[in-house]
Structures are given as structure tokens and as C-alpha cells.
Design goal:
Elements: H1 6-9, H2 13-25, H3 29-41, H4 50-65
């Protein structure tokens, strides 16, 4: 996806995280891993606050689950 606005990019990790969790729940671990990693590629845009840290933890925990 080509988006040049960091405000838009900053919104992408959350939907990717939710999509990954759906794939994980469906036991589709390959697609779950792809989407967790996509979420991680944009995690640098999150602030170091409660919400940002919660989403980052979700990504890291998800990746550990689908290894």
C-alpha cells in the first residue's frame, strides 16, 4: 500500500492486528503472521502511550503465538 500521509499510516496497525487475530482464530497461521508483520511495519508511528503500547504488545504477542 502506498500512502504518504503518516496520519493515515498510523491508523493501519490496528486493522492489520484485527485481521491477523481473525486469521489466527481460524487457524490460518500463515496469513495471521503476514498481517501481524504488516502491523509491525507501521508500529513506529505509534506514540509511546497506553494505546500505542497496547497495540504493540498485541502485535508482539500475536507473532509469538503463530511462530
Amino acid at each position: 500500500m502506498k500512502v504518504n500521509d503518516n496520519n493515515v499510516k498510523g491508523a493501519l496497525p490496528s486493522p492489520y492486528l484485527n485481521i491477523a487475530k481473525c486469521h489466527e482464530d481460524l487457524k490460518d497461521f500463515n496469513n495471521a503472521k503476514v498481517n501481524y508483520n504488516l502491523a509491525l511495519t507501521f508500529s513506529y508511528l505509534f506514540p509511546d502511550d497506553g494505546y500505542g503500547n497496547m497495540i504493540k504488545r498485541g502485535m508482539k504477542n500475536g507473532i509469538e503465538m503463530v511462530k
